[in-house]
Amino acid sequence: MAVNAEMIDSQLQLIFEDGIDLEGKAVYRTKSFNNVKTTATSEQLHTVAAALEPLQQLVLSTIERNDEFMIYEA
User: Fold this and answer.
1) Is the distance from CB of 59 to CB of 49 less than 8 angstroms?
2) Residue-wise over 36-67: b if at least 16 C-beta within 10 A, else e?
3) Torsion angle of alpha carbons 20, 42, 31, 48, nearest 10°?
4) Number of domains making up the chain
5) How far is CA 57 from CA 29, 37, 44, in A?
6) I want to staple 62 with a disulfide (CB 3.0 to 4.6 A). Which of 3, 15, 19, 66 is the partner?
């Protein structure tokens, strides 16, 4: 049985440092951008994140991409 996976959705998440809690651990805040083109490359997403970073008040910690796949039998 052959199984295929097709990317159906992608999301860009920018994770920012939002301070430190009472225990001394970093607190993070996430901004999500939905409906990212599934054909977008990692380099393109990094370029977008770099362009958005100066517009933010918080320090950018991490750039993440979350992809959603549909898995089906071929």
Assistant:
1) no
2) beeeeeeeebeebbeeeeeeeeeebeebeeee
3) 110
4) 1
5) 11, 26, 23
6) 15
Overall size of the chain counted in residues: 74
Label residue 38 left, alpha or beta by phi (over 0 means left) and psi (-120 to 50 means alpha): alpha
Asked whether 20 and 69 are in contact (CB, 8 A), the reply is: no
pTM: 0.85
Q: Tens-of-pLDDT digits for all 74 residues of the chain?
A: 899 999 999 999 999 999 999 999 999 999 999 999 999 999 999 999 999 999 999 999 999 999 999 999 98
CA distance linking residue 50 with residue 65, whole number of Å? 14
Q: What tokens appear for 31 in the block?
A: 């901004």
